[in-house]
């Protein structure tokens, strides 16, 4: 099985990175292959936590949101065609939108899961979580929001 984790670039210093790294390590021990794909504005993300994890990045500092999204969706659709994952897990809400659009553009029939690590109550673009087919909740608050 091949799992794709996708999301916006993260700082590299937080608990979310630790959880993702631990999950990927656990999967690897069970012979489940995982890769990550990040949407980045620059190359300032601390990548130390990614040691031993295969990852790709789409870089765009385009200021116009719809053009930046189009570039990221195009890059992700090409990556999906190359990687051919069995499952896509989005680590933030905007990635749910990108994954749904890239899946359609690439013609890859793959289930998309959301795995938000923050409350959606005050999150910008929280509605994009509905673009995912399934939802993994790490708290009861996130679970209630998705029902």
TrEMBL record:
GO terms for molecular function: glycosyltransferase activity. InterPro entries: Glyco_trans_4-like_N. It comes from the Bacteria. Pfam families: Glyco_transf_4. Signal peptide: none annotated. Residues 13-122 form the Glycosyltransferase subfamily 4-like N-terminal domain. This is Glycosyltransferase subfamily 4-like N-terminal domain-containing protein.
């Amino acid at each position: 099985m091949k799992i794709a984790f996708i999301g916006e670039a993260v700082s590299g210093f937080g608990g979310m990175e630790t959880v993702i790294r631990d999950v990927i390590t656990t999967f690897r021990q069970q012979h489940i292959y995982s890769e990550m794909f990040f949407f980045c504005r620059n190359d300032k993300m601390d990548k130390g936590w990614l040691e031993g994890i295969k990852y790709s990045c789409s870089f765009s500092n385009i200021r116009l949101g719809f053009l930046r999204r189009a570039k990221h969706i195009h890059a992700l659709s090409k990556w999906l065609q190359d990687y051919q994952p069995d499952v896509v897990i989005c680590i933030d809400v905007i990635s749910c939108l990108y994954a749904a659009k890239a899946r359609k553009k690439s013609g890859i029939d793959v289930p998309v899961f959301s795995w938000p690590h923050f409350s959606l109550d005050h999150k910008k673009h929280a509605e994009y979580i509905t673009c995912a087919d399934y939802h993994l909740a790490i708290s009861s608050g996130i679970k209630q929001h998705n029902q």
